[in-house]
Amino acid sequence: MAGIWNEIPLSPQAQSLNVTMAGVSYYLTFTYRNCTEGGWFLDIADQNQNPLVQGIPLVTGCDLVACYPDKKFGFSLIVLTDNDSAAPPTFANLGVDSHVYFGVVS
């Protein structure tokens, strides 16, 4: 992971928080769906909680916002899990062994 990456402070529970990325404040909501093909999902809203993108699955090792170039976010989001780069975040390990990072796109 080259460049400067910042971890979004999370815990293994559904949560919402404001995070400033690439100089813009976003309202992020992390939700766990306990079902087949479930897992952790992310909603991104502006600072006034107006939805921008909803239902992004937390897939390990890829840029979560790369498929939304029209949003011009100016940052990348990636999920990495300690000791197993391919392991998805579980209900119990988000923010513990599985981490969400953002980096500014240059």
Model description:
The chain has no helices and seven strands. With 106 residues, it is mainly beta. It is globular and about 30 Å long.
Q: What summary fits the major beta sheet?
A: 4 strands, antiparallel
The whole-number mean of residue pLDDT values reads: 94
Stretches with pLDDT under 50, minimum 5 residues: none
Looking at how many chains there are and whether they match, the oligomeric state comes to: single chain
Global outline = globular
Q: In sequence order, what are the helices and strands, one letter per element?
A: EEEEEEE
Number of helices: 0
In whole angstroms, the N-to-C terminal distance is 14 Å
Biggest sheet: strand arrangement: 2-3-4-5
Strand and helix layout:
Blueprint: E1 6-7, E2 15-21, E3 24-33, E4 39-46, E5 51-57, E6 75-81, E7 98-104
Antiparallel strand pairs: 1-7, 2-3, 3-4, 4-5, 6-7
Concise summary:
With 106 residues, this protein is mainly beta.
Keywords:
106 residues, mainly beta, 4-stranded antiparallel β-sheet
